[in-house]
Amino acid sequence: MAAVMDISYVCSLGLPVHVPAKTSKALLAEALQVAKPVQSLETTQDVGVAGQVDPPLQSSAAASKPLYMDATYVFQCQSSIEHSKLSEDGQALLVQLNQTVFHPQGGGQPTDIGRLLADGVPPLDVVFVSKDKVDQSTIWHECRGDVQHWLGKKGLEVTCVVDDARRRLCARLHSAGHLLDVAMMAAGFRWKPGKGYHFPDGPYVEYLPSEEGRQVDLKDTKAKELVLQELASKMKELIDRNVPTGIGYVDGTRTITMDGVACGCGGTHVEFSGEIGEVTIKKIQSKQGNIRVSYALA
Ligand SMILES: [Zn+2]
């Protein structure tokens, strides 16, 4: 098995680079994201590069076609159950489907939530979605509800319904992180993007400092303030220009391009930067040797 490549949404490819987006249907690179299952979003902390909690969901079940990579604003699909099992506490049903519109938590992006519907059985709430730790082509849907009716239903045709408001919010939060990389480059910084955290409760991108390019003294309050203002201004300009998000494949890796800046990513994105809306650059601070730039959506 190839080494797991956690690209968070940018890190392993180094600096975002200007790469022409391709539209070939090359095979997806394995393991675009690291998943860290949790029981609820409220308890979720960081799931970016540093996600180190062992996911409890492991299996050698078959691959789940990741339809969420094809389109952000498709919220439903028809699927069939490949495999299911009760969680260890017996309270949840862990479902693997042949294909899914649910984005699994990972790469700094929260899990999608929603419902599974099928004839003859009560609907289930999908409360968490994650990639299998061993086989990252397998996606598990942690479902709650009257799960007893769903036991042993291999092959059952189901309708997947993603919570569209949450999907839209996640795409905006996540895409703002990409746009921040663009703004950072435009401002002359050459720091390598690392961990991204694109949750609603305080999103940020961390950068690895480099001696190349522009520098800023983080102990200089005035200098930091000027950088914040400059980044905010560049973000606004990029959003006002409504630049499109390009999705293609470079050497088999799904690659996202915004304003000519490309990086590897397995997440969901807005189609145009204008959908992100107003972005505030909140803080720039040193975090364990990295430089964290925090932002917020209006
Ligand atoms: Zn992305």
TrEMBL record:
TM helices/strands, residue ranges: none
Source organism superkingdom: Eukaryota
GO terms of biological process kind: tRNA aminoacylation
Name the UniProt record assigns to this protein: AlaS protein
Organism: Symbiodinium natans
SMART domains for this protein: tRNA_SAD (SM00863)
InterPro entries named among the record's database cross-references: Alanyl-tRNA_Editing_Enzymes (IPR051335), Thr/Ala-tRNA-synth_IIc_edit (IPR018163), Transl_B-barrel_sf (IPR009000), tRNA_SAD (IPR012947)
Signal sequence, start to end: none
Similarity-based family: Belongs to the class-II aminoacyl-tRNA synthetase family. Alax-L subfamily.
Entry GO MF terms: aminoacyl-tRNA ligase activity; ATP binding
UniProt domain Threonyl/alanyl tRNA synthetase SAD: residue ranges: 253-294
SUPFAM superfamilies, A to Z: ThrRS/AlaRS common domain, Translation proteins
Needed co-factor(s): Zn(2+)
